[in-house]
Amino acid sequence: MDFKPVERVSGAFQQSLTAEEIQQVCRQVFGVTTAPLSAVELGAGMYNNVYRVTLAGQPKPVILRAAPPESRQFRSERHLMRNEHAAQPWLAGIARLMPQILAADWSHQVIARDWMIQTHLDGVPAPQHLGTYSRTAWPAFFRQLGVITRSVHDVQGPHFGSVGGPGHRTWSETVIASLEEIAADLDEAGLDAADVRKVAAVAAHEHAVLDEITEPRLLTGDLWTVNALMDPTAPEPVITGVLDFDRCLFGDPAADWTIRMAGAKPDERTAFWESYGAPDRSAAAVWRAAVYEARHLGAIRLERHRLAKSDAVEESYGAMAEVLSALT
Description:
The chain is an alpha+beta fold. The chain is 39% helix and 15% strand.
């Protein structure tokens, strides 16, 4: 097998599978007669290890994704791949845009990590292709993203919290628990978590504002340009696929990463709201958005620490201080 892993520094968070491990997974799923001819690691993601695997006798490659070893997972990111697997039936409205799961294994009997094999989607990653169009064409992309996001957010769930459960009875319990998990992860990483705990305390004190959200809706968790594929030959931007729904949860759609990014800049992305619908600008919604921003910033701090970006970690404290000021 021709094996091309991503070269990483020693001690990096992501650790590649070995060629033998990839072969073991393929034998488990496809048998000994359909051998992997090549495995190329795709370096765009920052959490799972992802490989494009070409199989003997098969016209199209498949995608193998391997979760980090459990010992390396933050508690706020525990079993994300299992959560994505549980979310598939809830994402039926956009199934035409998503890869199909061919096999998944949480037993660790084949390799000592959770793994999943999916169909390979055609298309070019949006960060690579959107810029080939004139900026006057970009709003078409964001309008499509608004349609996709609205389709997800229209799904009502059975509880608040991660799709795979266990769930929470109220939205405030979900938000506070998430902030406390992030704070505990920061503690274990040796980082100051006092500001995240202050946000959790404010959220607990003002829980009634959070609990105005009474219907748990499905959130994409992480959908934005980096997780979208595009038609490489279309005369205008066309989204052909969306990926990586491992951070799906049930809650307030305004807490979704997609909503945060759609409102981040007054540029072409404002077309998102034309198809999605206008955001809630009430005082309560603005206050909740500040809590959600604090949750995002806490998660971003952990990710920056994981990527050894110490300067960016330090910057997160100033951003969090501004959010705390707005909340209090």
